[in-house]
Design a protein that fits this description.
alpha+beta, Immunoglobulin-like, Zincin-like, Neutral Protease, domain 2, eight-stranded mixed beta sheet, five-stranded mixed beta sheet, 19 helices, 37% helix, 20% strand, Peptidase_M1_dom, zinc ion binding
Length: 605
């Protein structure tokens, strides 16, 4: 029996493979639990050699387990942090290779479930109804139901979800989904494209919908519906058409966006059919919709073609950054590709500085034995992965790389792969082109160095046309006698403002007075764009401008996106630990369990 290649699962998925998952749950807002059952259709990979099924499980309350309707013996083994407690289910005599069995597990989630967040009515915008949503990436699906919680296993899904409020899930809606809040109703969804467990997604609350394209809707709270519709409707179909030209036609049917309450910990989560998105992208200026271009790109990279384990996360995120930037370039011009890459490079520098340039977590392939993938999570997979693909594009030329893109996604569609399989696919494709020069260039790629060297990769020469204005203004701020004017920024996009702020932050400390002057002159404090507001707060905190400490703490009570929460807490902690601790204590139940756990580590709690 082959060993698992994913160290982040305790399941014996080389002996059994999940082919279909039926999740039947009542969403119980009063008990803050999902109650019901999951049925895993498992295919035996051995000829009666395995007499037990081992599943990932973490703090799930299991009542009974049946195999083909017959009750089965089972036991939860010792808890193994951070992976959970393996669930061992007896299969006396094993099962013939290729034979299917139905494994039914009756269960309910517990208060220790790391995938679900339950919001009170007071935590929602119109204060009328409770809300719940899931976030399963990377290894949190196992805290909803026992499963083979690895991206190396994919199954089709049926969702049967009963709730007193509207429901969305990572499948295609089946039947009547009209709802009357307060009336219990069964909502059914089918996902016919096989997906890994981390893409299991569900949300329920006072959710309204509006069209944002011929095959897209936005779903969100009734109060936010019109502004979300306006923010997204201009670009949605354009993004889809460009992505389809780059790769191949979209395979999932509809592409929808659920804009969640502010405690959602990520910018977006690429759950199929319904991208889950942070409300911080709704900035009133359509300047943050690149998050949607990113999550849409996941429909090919990550969702159709998945990393086999979190050690190879760059295969999901590096590809997605590359596709996102190609979409931006097609819509806004080639300079946008380079400008976005410059912003990404700064984020990569920050991540490498945080971990240390020789740290394991700054490699492209990262060892995960005994490690929680959440601890590894950073922009490294995104930006170092992007830079590797950009380097490969340079080796073979864009025209040839563009032929490789649909070949790669077609070859691995519906499957999972690791970095070594990617390497072989790349070599096979370009060596078979019959171009001697390309074959010679490809032969000179040092794959070991690219995969395993920590720290920053070589910095490419990007077109700095859009960035030069930002750099020039940041240079002026190094002169303490420079007198700023609101006109300095009048032609800047939101992203140019961010590059300016990042450059100022990196170039040294401003005095508290100068930081205040910047905030007032450029009106950063009244910005509705959280990207800009948080970037300015980081500068002001570094400058020890005590006038904004409380403002930063207030923002930390309004947003739960880790991109903002974690750096702000780290910065606030350096200048006023007491306020940082008070702010965390006040808001810890507002944050998603994933975010809460990471901030606790950041604050040394």
């Amino acid at each position: 029996m082959a060993a698992n290649r994913d160290p982040s699962t305790l399941s014996n998925y080389s002996a059994w493979r999940t082919r279909h998952t039926t999740a039947s749950f009542k969403i119980d807002f009063e008990d803050k639990a999902l109650k019901g059952s999951v049925v895993l259709q498992l295919e035996s990979q051995t000829d009666k050699e395995s007499n037990e099924i081992i599943l990932d499980s973490r703090y799930v309350d299991i009542s009974t387990i049946r195999i083909n309707s017959t009750e089965s013996k089972w036991e939860l083994k010792e808890y193994n942090a951070p992976l959970g407690a393996p669930l061992h289910i007896h299969v006396p005599g094993g099962v013939a290779k290729g034979e299917l069995i139905d494994l039914a597990i009756d269960l309910k989630t517990t208060s220790k479930c790391t995938a679900l967040q339950w919001l009170t009515p007071a935590q929602t915008s119109n204060k009328k109804h409770p809300y719940m949503f899931s976030q399963c990436q990377a290894i949190n699906a196992r805290s909803i139901f026992p499963c083979q919680d690895t991206p190396d296993v994919k199954s089709t899904f049926t969702f049967k979800l009963t709730s007193s409020l509207p429901v969305v899930a990572s499948g295609v809606p089946v039947g009547d989904h009209s709802a009357t809040p307060g009336e219990e109703k069964l909502y059914e969804f089918e996902q016919k494209v096989p997906i890994p467990s981390y893409l299991f997604a569900v949300a329920s609350g006072d959710i309204a919908t509006a069209p944002i394209g011929p095959r897209s809707i936005v779903a969100t709270g009734p109060n936010e519906l019109e502004e979300c519709k306006w923010e997204l409707e201009r670009d949605m179909e354009k993004f889809m058409e460009v992505a389809e030209k780059l790769v191949f036609p979209y395979k999932w049917g509809a592409y929808n966006v659920l804009v969640l309450p502010p405690s959602f910990p990520y910018g977006g989560m690429e759950n199929p059919i319904y991208t889950f998105a942070t409300p911080t992208i709704i900035s009133g200026d359509r300047q943050n919709v690149d998050v949607i271009a990113h999550e849409l790109s996941h429909s090919w990279s990550g969702n159709l073609v998945s990393n086999a384990s979190w050690e190879h996360f760059w295969l999901n995120e590096g590809w997605t950054m590359y596709l996102e930037r190609r979409i931006q370039a097609a819509i806004h011009g080639d300079a946008e590709f380079d400008f976005s890459s410059i912003i990404g490079w700064k984020a990569l520098e920050d991540a490498v500085e945080l971990f240390g340039k020789d740290h394991e977590y700054t490699k492209l392939i990262i060892k995960h034995e005994g490690v929680d993938p959440e601890d590894v999570y950073s922009t490294v997979a995104y930006e170092k992965g992007f830079h590797f693909l950009y380097y490969l594009e340079g080796v073979v030329g864009r025209e040839n790389f563009d032929k490789f893109i649909p070949f790669y996604f077609t070859k691995w569609s519906g499957k999972s792969l690791d970095s070594f399989e990617f390497k072989q696919t790349f070599l096979d494709f370009f060596n078979n082109l019959g171009d001697e020069k390309i074959s010679k260039n490809v032969a000179e790629i040092n794959w070991e160095e690219k995969f395993y060297t920590p720290g920053l990769p070589p910095k490419p020469e990007f077109d700095t046309t859009l960035a030069n204005q930002c750099y020039d203004l940041a240079t002026k701020w190094k002169d303490a006698n420079f007198t700023p004017s609101a006109k300095d920024l009048e032609n800047f996009t939101a992203n140019q403002k961010l590059v300016f702020l990042a450059e100022v932050q990196q170039s040294g400390e401003l005095s508290a007075d100068r930081a205040q002057l910047m905030g007032k002159t450029y009106d950063f404090l009244s910005s509705k764009n959280v990207e800009i507001l948080s970037a300015y707060y980081l500068i002001a905190l570094k400058a020890h401008d005590s006038a904004i400490y409380q403002d930063a703490a207030t923002l930390l009570g309004r947003v739960g996106r880790m991109k903002f929460v974690r750096p702000l807490f780290r910065a606030l902690n350096k200048v006023d630990r007491q306020l940082a601790l008070q702010t965390f204590e006040k808001n810890k139940d507002f944050y998603h369990p994933i975010c809460k756990g990471m901030v606790e580590k950041d604050l040394g709690l």
